[in-house]
């Protein structure tokens, strides 16, 4: 059984930086990590890439050959990858014995709530290789400073969760920069819990453009609240404690914490309901202390 993360999110949300920082952190706590770049537009990788989709298909070649723009080119590349899934399967099979996998996907949001190619690739890999994956959906924290953009981020997160049908964690990335975007209308807990969205209405009405769509915004907020699926955790990728808390949450969602544990259903249930800041044998104190070099590695 192999565990890993599907890293997704809009352009600029920090996916590549996340994969770089997360791979460093996981190595520091003793895991053997393989980063798989499935973004054919990502030609400047800061991390060591184990598998690169550009060995199969290049966005620039697709755009030139088929006279497509970047969005159409990315859709073509995902379709091409789906049709050549055996290439990716063959590349992944040598890693299955002892690696933890990080999949770095493109930032085109349509691929994860509208088109089916990326989802089909993920589902095929899960079935063929017995993977246990969690979708980590990054959203730039600066969207919280604009009520309209925040509602859009909620709707995108909900649509993506429903489309992918994976264990799913929404993350407000770059949380260390949130104060530079201006004063928030509410405490940060309001934005992470995503409840009582009616309180946003007053702030939306202050903008003449948003006020025109008052009824539509209210209906969208009602949809989000009725599903009651979306919330966020926060992340500062240069803070070892922040990254460690997210890793624990991911491990709980995809079942990594249960790997190698022989226990009854009752014991599994006890582990499952514990808060995310529990201490377990995969996080010995000596390993966490070693993470003091984490920030240095990112610079």
Automatic annotation (TrEMBL):
UniProt entry tagged with the keyword NAD: no
GO CC term, one of those recorded: cytoplasm
Entry keyword set: GTP-binding, Hydrolase, Nucleotide-binding
Molecular function as annotated in GO: GTP binding; GTPase activity
Similarity comment: family membership: Belongs to the GPN-loop GTPase family.
Physiological role: Small GTPase required for proper localization of RNA polymerase II and III (RNAPII and RNAPIII). May act at an RNAP assembly step prior to nuclear import.
Subunit-structure text: Binds to RNA polymerase II (RNAPII).
Name under which the protein is recorded: GPN-loop GTPase 2
